Amino acid sequence: xxxxxxxxxxxxxxxxxxxxxxxxxxxxxxxxxxxxxxxxxxxxxxxxxxxxxxxxxxxxxxxxxxxxxxxxxxxxxxxxxxxxxxxxxxxxxxxxxxxxxxxxxxxxxxxxxxxxxxxxxxxxxxxxxxxxxxxxxxxxxxxxxxxx
Amino acid sequence: xxxxxxxxxxxxxxxxxxxxxxxxxxxxxxxxxxxxxxxxxxxxxxxxxxxxxxxxxxxxxxxxxxxxxxxxxxxxxxxxxxxxxxxxxxxxxxxxxxxxxxxxxxxxxxxxxxxxxxx
Lengths: 148, 119
Fold this sequence. Notes:
The complex is a heterodimer.
Chain A: E1 2-7, H1 13-27, H2 31-52, E2 60-67, E3 71-78, H3 101-109, E4 112-115, E5 123-130, E6 136-138, E7 144-146
Antiparallel strand pairs in A: 1-2, 2-3, 3-5, 4-5, 6-7
Helix pairs in contact in A: 1-2, 2-3
Chain B: E1 2-8, E2 11-20, H1 25-37, E3 42-53, H2 55-71, E4 74-78, H3 82-90, E5 99-100, H4 103-109
């Protein structure tokens, strides 16, 4: 298990991406998969900074990673207002507008995505990626596809 | 991330390098909007140095594209690395943007691209 906490400064998102790439490479994911997972975590953390913390840079967010035999589990914690899980859904891609793609990337690259309802203060987002490519995964060209 | 602007025969070229994320995308946005509003006929974004792009970077490119609808500016991207290309493809934006492989191709063909009129 590894846990890293950073202040909610966008310039520190690079640290989270590096940690995710490093740990997912260790877990046995391919390089394109590692890049996709780093992007998904980056998007989740960016959502916390922008929406939960309202772009405040003096708050805290923490990322916990568990490398398990068949999967990697990520827990992203913040101490902001509770988010309404139902309001976080990917938007239709047929609309051409600047925002709203982050959640789409998270859902595309992760196999499971849920909030811990028992987390007392703030939010604890659980994201899971299986090594077998149980759900969404990246192919060798780095694009996403669905598998069995 | 760095953005440098060149002007080649009335074509503005934005050379981007590094990671385009929530932290750095405002820099790209400022440069891109300035070039599009400058009323030149064509703007190209050189992505060959972009090592990472997230949804905020893509949102910046979409915003630029939408602005070109008002300014009638021709707009294109070139030099996308596989990871940036795959993110655009996943978001189904690779057919919305005009994308060239190389700078010579982009400079040669941007003049014949029709300005964006929306989808």
